[in-house]
Amino acid sequence: MAQTKKELSFWQIWNMSFGFLGIQFGFALQGGFMSRIFQTLGAEKDAIPFLWIAAPLTGLLVQPIVGYLSDHTWHPKFGRRKPFFFFGAVFSTIALFLAPYSSALWMAAGALWILDASINISMEPFRALVADKLPDSQRSYGFVVQTLIIGIGTWIASNLPWFMTQLGVPNTAAAGIVPDSVKYAFGIGALVLFSSILYTILKTEEYPPENMEEFQAEKNQGFFKGLSEIVRNISTMPAVMKQLGLVQFFSWFAFFTMWSFATPAITEHIFGATDTTSIAYNDAADSVGNYLGTYGLVSMIYALVLAFFTSKYKINRKLLHMLSLLAGGLGFILIYFIQEAWMLHICFSLVGIAWASILSMPYAMLSSSVDPRKMGVFMGIFNMFIVIPQIVAALGGVNFLYKLLFGEAVINTMLLAGTLLILASLSNLLITDRQATHD
């Protein structure tokens, strides 16, 4: 007999999702400032995407396995997903703290690899936890609350180096040395990451498996049997998952382009700064982080509005996602045309609308379309549609496409990102399953 899941209050959902604050501190710092670290250590602009390659490659392998293992884990005290939260937090904290102390490109790329893999060990079980704990009527609400927390984390973390500079922490350093403002920011991020995930672990209880005998039998099948099950689930994934996969491909290709190129593109095009040892460049890079924080802030506000709305009314998930992605695409394209730096706040506000939707609506649609007993492994498999576009982009996809379609100037990467988000928006038209698209 299926478990009857009671509806949870806002604060109960907040507590079980609070660890995402730390996860997003990690993602925002790596997305906003790893390219700055790479440039400081001597990387050429066109080489930056390749330095990101290890992270998504690892995610392609790690996330389905972590999802499968978390589906088949249970302890009366530690639960199902929480052990993965904890071990992911430990390794993420270490990697985040050490990343800005890298003295060579291979060290920074290695730190990014460990950081991204470790964050993903925690992240996918967090997605599965929402589906584990909430009835279908609260799924959109639950994922939107996660997005609210993610928006808070993005905004604060993206502004940390700028804030450190305002407190008097040095924002420049000798050639090949990462400024102290960035080191302090990553250190604070490491502390927040670990403590916020620990808060969720201490404040959240999990449901036990519905049928313990069946659960134990499946659990004892062995690791290689588990790998074959992952492959089987990939080959038999629901149609909705495949359709969402195309939307995700274009969406995450666009955001990988932003994370890789926003700093070099905007510091050069808007601020005219290219010397990584100069005050002008480092101040401009801080400003880029500040503008990137805008998309986190707006995603937080947008998620707050959605949280209120979805707690009371039903929504058309597909239409909402489609319009949100279209707004983000226009935001990226506008970056190319603006004349004043302050207008970046407008551009990234539109991007923030897309970001809030990307972090909630696809997961809400997916969670209504898969077997709840396999929620972890399907969330892990679904993450393939996040990492595959990043791999394609890192292996030369970004460099090839932006130069082919728009020209050599690095600011053209933002035109590419905008085009990709518009394609993602239109791809939603392929999703026709009403159970997935409507609350």
TrEMBL record:
It is found in: Membrane. Pfam families: MFS_1. InterPro entries: MFS, MFS_dom, MFS_trans_sf. Residues 240-439 form the Major facilitator superfamily (MFS) profile domain. One of its GO terms (cellular component) is membrane. The keyword Flavoprotein does not apply. Keywords: Membrane, Transmembrane, Transmembrane helix, Transport. The chain crosses the membrane at residues 12-30, 50-70, 82-99, 143-164, 184-202, 244-262, 291-310, 319-337, 343-365, 377-398, 410-431. One of its GO terms (molecular function) is transmembrane transporter activity. It is a multi-pass membrane protein. This is Maltose/moltooligosaccharide transporter. It comes from Algoriphagus locisalis.
